[in-house]
Amino acid sequence: MRFDSPLIPAFFLRREKRFLAEVELETGGRVWVHVPNSGALTGCMATGQEILLTRDEGPGRKTGYTWRFSRIPGGWVCIDTLVPNRLIGKALRGPGLAGLPPLPRVRAEVTLPRGSRLDFVADTGDRLVFLEVKSVTWVENGVALFPDGVTSRGRRHLEELQSLVRQGHEAWQIFVVQRHDATLFRPAVEVDPHFSQELLKAQAHGVHIAVFQEIVCPPEITLAETLPYDLIFAPIPNQILTDF
Predict the structure, then answer these.
(1) What are the residues whose beta carbons fall under 8 Å from the beta carbon of 205, sequence distance 6 or more?
(2) Is the pTM value of this prediction over 0.90?
(3) Domain extent at residue 49
(4) Would you state the pLDDT for residue 238?
(5) Number of structural domains the chain divides into
(6) Are residues 86 and 23 located together in one domain of the fold?
(7) Where are any strands of DSSP class E within 8-61?
(8) How many Cβ atoms are within 10 Å of 241's Cβ, its own excluded?
(9) Whose CA is closest to 24, among 44, 58, 53, 57?
(10) Helix axes 193-204, 152-166, angle to 10 degrees
(11) Do the strands 106-111 and 50-55 form a parallel or antiparallel pair, or are they unpaired?
């Protein structure tokens, strides 16, 4: 996919709440920008870090800018959590994904009977295939880590996927690493051991897991090869962080 709007260089200053940040434009002047990511953005928002924005105006918006990319050593990371869904959706309707053939009748944003919502469902005629996609922006020493904040919503999605498998459907948890410098994926057990345990449990109960990496060359982003993953177990401490 490609961002058609011109990319605007800026420098990160500070984050205000979850979806708003103050930045300094390369041409001068400070502006507020929309942050299209509810995570902690570990490693992606140091003060003075180079970022790229798009100009986006419309009714109901609090700001005319959206933060899209952050500069990291050797390249860029895309922080927009909608990008993985667009890439995965395009692949599902086209050439397919590794381990999955092209799927007919793909629908996005599927609401389940209990109120949860998953990213995709496809009807193959003899079964339904459900997919949930997570954006990964945190990498340490070549290891992509998720989540970067405690995610009760992520755990509920894993529980829903397991329930769907028990009902006879096929279910996938997909992680998309939005940067070039990862060679392995692991759940961030130190941040959210409950999610790590649930991911391990989901795999044991038949939920498929796949990790894909993006090639990020602003303004273009493409889906690249799969990454290996290591699901590790950690005991639950007495106290853990609250949701970011």
Answers:
(1) 162, 165, 166
(2) yes
(3) 8-74
(4) 53
(5) 2
(6) no
(7) 8-16, 20-25, 30-34, 50-55
(8) 11
(9) 53
(10) 10
(11) unpaired
